[in-house]
Amino acid sequence: MSVFHHKERLIEPVVPTHNQQVSIGSYLAKRIAEAGARHYFTVPGDFTLALLDEFLKEPSLSMVGCCNELNAGYAADGYCRATKGLGVVMVTYMVGGLSVINAAAGAYSDDLPLLVISGGPNSHDGQDRHLIHHTIGEIELYQSSKCFEPVVAKTFVVRHPKDAQIMIDEALSVCLYQRKPVYLEIACNLSTFKIFEPVPMKFSDPANPTGNDFVSDPESLYSALDDILHLLNAATKPVLVAGVKLRKCGAAGDFMNLASAMQCGVAVSPDAKGLFHEDHPFYMGCWWGCVSSPHVQEIVESSDLVLFAGTIFNDYTTVGWTAEISPSKSIVIYPDHINICGKHFANVYMKDIITKLIPRVPVKDASMINFKRYKDGDPELVVPQINNLSISEKEKPLTLKFISGQIQARLKPTTSLVIETGDCWFIGQNLHLPAEAIYHIQMQYGSIGWAVGATLGVALAVQGKRRVLALIGDGSFQVTAQEVSTMIRQGVRATILLFNNNGYTIEVQIHDGPYNDIQDWKYSELMSTFNATNSKNAIGVKATTNQQLVDALNMAENFEGVALIECCIGRDDCTSNLLIWGSKVAHSNGRL
Predict the structure, then answer these.
(1) What is the largest CA-CA distance in the chain?
(2) Model pTM greater than 0.70?
(3) Residues 173-217: pLDDT tens digits?
(4) DSSP for 313-372?
């Protein structure tokens, strides 16, 4: 990861056949629109004001002013997820950039093409050795880009007009091609400098990121194919496990076709929920070690061959390293290489190997037959009544179990779920998603507070097409709560279920202490605080009983704004899987 500035210029700008000129800021705005984005998220600062003026002239883009830079970054993250394309956040130099860097790191962990645009010092300040405000008090002016280097694919610093076209075009190309964040800094005095207007440019297709851009090494590809087919033919009860990297590689649909061809049992890793249709005839549930969906752990871990596609193995997804499968019976397909029972095959791309396997794999249905045998003995799943509660049920104190049942009963194909870090992970995993419902989660980075900003970005991306439902704990909400005001300002349609149990429940289960307690807020009343000018755009409701929750959810379903429902539950009312998972992760963290 390196800073690419004008002294390192490798190629010359393309000169168009006509001489029409635009400002550097306008050039960037037009390129962003050409790449498919329609919104950008920002907090203004003196180094970006002129650049923002140029962006406001681009009719294809809409500005979304946010409450702080971290939230703006989270919103751009959610926008990437919902559009499967480019997200853009613009901040001022250093004080804005270092605030948004946490969001950039999360986007990197989940392969999101997030473009971080920062204003920079005047292009003359470096050579004049000026000490600039918003810095740490040192003359050197690459402070911000150096901080970003570990969490982005590449950094670009434009301090000479001749570099603008090259750097802007490469920044966007790298961002979309690699599906990773990129940092682009533009000196504040260059935003209005005139350069040739952009010529048409083809970017990687965000909805199909592999396209024709990645070509596997043929010898490695077919050697891997032969080995995989040999193992599949010899296996008695193989299973497939879908991982989150399927999204980056545009291979989720191909993986479903592979499952249909093999007819074996299919599980998903917890961070890949929603990438495989849960109504698919061979879907079993989530494989998450000892907190897996019913019977899934037994089927996966007793299998004689497990094919993982795009799975991430970390301490959270393996439940503190307790859910590891022996390499001797594992095929792991990564985005650009494969490991077959410990044997490495380089330069083989996920989409290539999966599509080659589909017409060649044998039918192997033993694992699915075994799963159905287990499942047939389970009690029938009863979907709770949305209305018509009995008199005794109406006044019962609200519980997590009742809330979960009400969520399940109201899920639709047009629902987009945003799931915050914490017990919401486990609530979400227990939901059965209708076909076409979408599920957003940040598990690898797991930054609490992410879901508030992400809900804003998702809601803007799907406005008028889908209903956004966010599940957020009270501790996480307090980190980024003020961005609800931006949702109201933007007129988005979203429902936030806020679980108020007076603390960081997930951390209580990992390692409890007084640091997990938080100050209680009147959460539902915040909606009037955030909504001083338009009471039609927001509503807050507090639910302490079953009937109050039912009434609130009924209201929210038809509300054309932001509905926040404060769900008051007991401090120790959490999913049983969180208790199990928390103890395993705590043991892993504490090992010597």
Answers:
(1) 78
(2) yes
(3) 999 999 999 999 999 999 999 999 999 998 876 556 544 567 899
(4) --TTTTTTTTSPPPGGGEEEE-SSEEEETTEEEES--HHHHHHHHTTTPPP--HHHHHHH
- Which of 364, 335, 325, 356 lies closest to 226, judged by CA? 356
3 state SS for 71-121: HHHHHHHHHHHHHCCCEEEEECCCCCHHHHHHHHHHHHHCCCCEEEEEEEC
Tokens of 499: 């679980």
Q: CB neighbours of 307 closer than 8 A, spacing ≥ 6?
A: 228, 232, 238, 239, 240, 241, 331, 333
List 144's β-bridge partners, or say none: none
Q: Are 172 and 180 in contact (CB under 8 A)?
A: no
SS3 of 191, please?
coil
How far apart CA 404 and CA 310 sit, in angstroms, is: 29
Pairing verdict, β 330-333 and 337-340: antiparallel
Q: Could you tell me the end-to-end alpha-carbon distance of the chain, in angstroms, rounded to an integer?
A: 33
Half-sphere exposure of 356 (CA within 13 A, CB side): 18
How far apart are alpha carbons 388 and 399 in whole angstroms?
Answer: 18
User: Phi and psi for 118 in degrees, rounded to 5?
Assistant: -125, 135
Our measurement of the distance from residue 241's CA atom to the centroid of its chain's CA atoms, rounded to an integer in Å, reads: 20
